[in-house]
Design a protein that fits this description.
By secondary structure, the chain is mainly alpha-helical. Among the domains are: 196 residues, no CATH class; 74 residues. The chain is built from 22 helices and three strands. Strands 1-3-2 form a three-stranded mixed β-sheet, sandwiched between helices. β2 and β3 form a beta hairpin. α16 runs antiparallel to α17. The longest helix is centred in the last third of the chain and has 18 residues. It starts with a helix and ends with a helix.
Length: 407
C-alpha cells in the first residue's frame, strides 16, 4: 500500500523541478477521505482517500496538488507568517512520516491523527490553492496521467463531504467558492491537447491496492456487502472476501474463499501470496510454503511475500536462507518496524545477541516507541564484541539522534 502510493509520488517527482529535499510518503490507517503535506516534502495519504477514488489518476491528482503546495513553498510561507503554527507543533506531523507500511497500524493511526490535526492548522489562502491546482495540473500532465483525474478527485471529495457531513479537506477549502475552483480545474483540462485529454486510465494496480485496503481496514459489514454483491467470476472480489474472512477469524470460510480465488485465477501472484500468508498464520506451514514459494518465484520484488517466506524458512530451521530474505526486504524497506522486529527476534534466538538487540532497537525507533529505544540500545551496547558491532551501534545512534529531535 505504501509502496504503491510511493510509486505514484516517484512518477510525479520525476517531472518536478529539483528540490532541496526528497519527497517522502506515508499512508495513515484512517477512514478520512484526506491527504496533506508537511514541511520537508512529507506527503500523507489516508486509506479513506484510496477507497473513495475510482481511478489512479484521481489519486495522482490529489498527490500532485499536495506536492505543488510543497514546491511553491506555501507551507513554509504560512509558517513564517503565522504565529499560530510553530515548528515544534509540526513535530507530530513529521514523526508520523516515519511509520512503516508493514508495522503496527495502531501506532501509525494515532500518530497520523495527531499529524492530521497539526497540518489542518495550515489553512492555505485562495491564491495558494489556485496555484497548487495549476502547478499540480502541470505535474499530473507531465507525468503522463489523465488530466481529468484532478477534477474527478475534487468532485468525489466534495460529494463525500456532503454525504457524510465531514469537513471538506484543506486542499478543497472554500476560498471563496469550491464550485468555481473545480470549474477552473476543468477549464485547464479542456485547454490540453486532445491527445492529453483522451488519455486512458490504467487502473489495474489501483484496483488491487483498493481491494486490499477495503478487505483489511474498511468497515467489515460494508466491505463484505461489496464483495458479496460481486459476480461469481470476479476473481478479485473472491480474494477480497477471503482476506476479510481471515481478518474476522472465520477460518473455514476463509479457507474455502482462498481456494475459490486460486481456482478462479491461478496465475495471479497476489492470490498466491495472500493465500500463503493466511495458511502461515493459521499454522499450516506445508501449504504456506508451497504458496509463498510460488508467489516469490512469480514476483521476486513482492516484499511482503519475501517477508513471510523468510519467517517460514526460519521456522523450518533454514536460518541462513531466512536471513538472506530478511536482508533483501530491509534493503528495500529499511524503516519497516515489523521486519526489524521479526529479524531481530530470529537473530537473538540464533545466538546473535548484539544484532538481535540492534534490530529490535531499530524496530522500536521506526515504530516511535521512544521508551523502548534506549532500553534496547543499552542492551545492544552491553554485548558489543567487535569493532564492527561498535560501528553498527554508532550508525544506530546517529539515526536515533535524528529521530529524537522530533519526539
Amino acid at each position: 500500500m505504501k509502496e504503491y502510493v510511493r510509486s505514484i509520488v516517484e512518477r510525479l517527482k520525476a517531472v518536478v523541478p529539483p528540490q532541496p529535499f526528497d519527497f517522502e510518503t506515508n499512508v495513515l490507517l484512517h477512514n478520512a477521505v484526506n491527504a496533506f503535506a508537511s514541511p520537508g516534502g512529507y506527503i500523507f495519504v489516508h486509506t479513506g482517500l484510496l477507497m473513495a477514488m475510482e481511478h489512479e489518476s484521481e489519486v495522482a491528482g490529489v498527490l500532485a496538488h499536495e506536492m505543488a503546495h510543497v514546491t511553491q513553498r506555501h507551507i513554509a510561507n504560512r509558517i513564517e507568517k503565522s504565529q499560530r503554527v510553530t515548528l515544534l507543533s509540526l513535530a507530530g506531523a513529521l514523526a508520523g512520516a516515519f511509520m512503516g507500511g508493514g508495522g503496527s497500524g495502531k501506532g501509525a493511526a494515532m500518530a497520523g491523527s495527531m499529524a492530521a490535526g497539526q497540518a489542518a492548522m495550515l489553512n492555505y489562502s485562495r491564491i495558494d490553492e489556485s496555484e497548487a491546482d495549476q502547478v499540480g495540473m502541470q505535474y499530473l500532465v507531465a507525468a503522463g496521467f489523465r488530466p481529468d483525474g484532478m477534477a474527478g478527485a475534487f468532485e468525489k471529495l466534495r460529494r463525500q463531504s456532503w454525504m457524510t457531513g465531514t469537513d471538506v479537506p484543506t486542499y478543497l477549502s472554500t476560498h471563496p467558492n469550491l464550485t468555481d475552483r473545480i470549474s477552473e480545474v476543468r477549464l485547464r483540462v479542456e485547454q490540453q491537447p486532445a491527445s492529453v485529454r483522451n488519455r486512458q486510465d490504467d487502473d489495474e494496480r489501483f484496483r488491487r491496492v483498493q481491494l486490499l485496503v477495503r478487505a483489511r481496514y474498511a468497515d467489515a459489514t460494508i466491505a463484505l456487502r461489496t464483495f458479496e454483491q460481486a459476480k461469481p467470476d470476479d476473481c478479485m472480489s473472491q480474494l477480497g472476501r477471503a482476506i476479510l474472512y481471515s481478518r474476522l477469524n472465520r477460518v473455514g470460510e476463509a479457507t474455502a474463499a482462498f481456494d475459490r480465488a486460486l481456482a478462479c485465477n491461478p496465475r495471479d501472484q497476489l492470490v498466491w501470496r495472500e493465500a500463503g500468508r493466511f495458511h502461515y498464520t493459521k499454522g499450516d506451514r506445508h501449504r504456506a510454503a508451497q504458496m509463498l514459494q510460488r508467489a516469490v518465484l512469480m514476483n521476486s520484488r513482492d516484499y511482503m511475500a519475501l517477508f513471510f517466506y523468510a519467517r517460514l524458512l526460519f521456522d523450518a530451521g533454514q536460518r541462513n536462507e531466512a536471513y538472506t530474505y530478511y536482508k533483501e526486504v530491509l534493503r528495500h524497506l529499511p524503516e519497516d518496524s515489523e521486519v526489524h522486529d521479526y529479524y531481530g527476534r530470529a537473530l537473538g534466538m540464533d545466538g546473535q545477541v548484539f544484532k538481535g538487540y540492534l534490530h529490535l532497537a531499530y524496530s522500536a525507533l521506526y515504530a516511535n516507541e521512544k521508551d523502548k529505544v534506549e532500553q534496547l540500545r543499552d542492551k545492544a551496547r552491553a554485548v558489543i564484541r567487535t569493532p564492527e558491532d561498535q560501528a553498527d551501534l554508532e550508525r544506530f545512534d546517529s539515526r536515533y539522534q535524528e529521530r529524537k529531535a522530533f519526539w
